[in-house]
Specification:
Jelly Rolls; 10 strands; DUF1214 domain-containing protein; four-stranded mixed β-sheet; alpha+beta; four-stranded antiparallel β-sheet
């Protein structure tokens, strides 16, 4: 007597739970479709536009983050060094080169959810284009480590994996025509356990 309703109820629970879990999994896995990747740096230039795919819109709403408009800026993230190894707080890195043409850029280390890492009081946890020391040709080196270094130093805590977030503000790279020929800084590991 209760066999058919039980089977129907079980099937509905499995269907709804599977649908909800697959949607949540997709939202946590990606900002959306249309990612560009340049030298290990990844950005989603269409995630903030009106024509963004439904997953990008839902990801943005779920995260509660305000993204830049296509004419305002572009945010790149890097989770691996130039050799493809995951960035980790137990190692030191050197980020060198140049950023694409931009009026202002910012750089900070973040956890997997994009929240800035706290390396402790009085330690530089962010850099920007106005405060970075440059060579005569405009290139720069930034050492990313848990121990203090001379020159440009970005402090990170002794944690597990992290990501670097480079935001370009007022840049032609944010427009679809500016995406070709981008040159991004290179991240290389310079030692572990230091």
């Amino acid at each position: 007597m209760f066999r058919v309703p039980f089977i129907v109820a079980t099937a509905l629970i499995i269907a709804f739970a599977g649908g909800i879990l697959s949607a949540l999994s997709m939202l946590n896995a990606s900002v959306g479709f249309g990612a560009i990747e340049v030298a290990g740096w990844r950005a989603f230039p269409t995630a903030q536009t009106a024509s963004a795919d439904p997953y990008a819109k839902a990801h943005r709403a779920k995260g509660g983050r305000l993204l830049y408009g296509s004419a305002e800026g572009l945010q790149f993230t890097a989770v691996r060094d130039k050799d493809g190894l995951t960035l980790t707080g137990t190692c030191s890195y050197r980020m060198s080169g140049r950023t694409p043409t931009t009026r202002l850029w910012t750089l900070y280390a973040a956890d997997a959810d994009g929240n800035p890492l706290d390396a402790g009081a009085e330690r530089p946890t962010a850099k920007n284009s106005q405060t970075v020391l440059r060579r005569r040709d405009g290139s720069f080196d930034i050492v990313i480590s848990r121990t203090a270094k001379s020159g440009n130093w970005l402090a990170i805590p002794d944690t597990g994996a992290f990501q670097l977030v480079l935001t370009l503000l007022d840049t032609p790279a944010a427009a679809s025509t500016g995406l070709s020929g981008l040159s991004m800084p290179v991240i290389e590991q310079i030692g572990c356990g230091q």
